[in-house]
Amino acid sequence: MELRCKSEAELPDIARIFASCFPEPRVVALYAPMGFGKTTFIKVLANALGAREKGSSPTFAIVNEYPTESGKPIYHFDCYRLKGAIEALDFGMEEYLDSGNWCLVEWPERVEALLPEQTVRLHIKMEGEERIFSW
Question: Using 50, 70 and 90 to split pLDDT, how confident is the model at 52?
Answer without folding.
Answer: confident
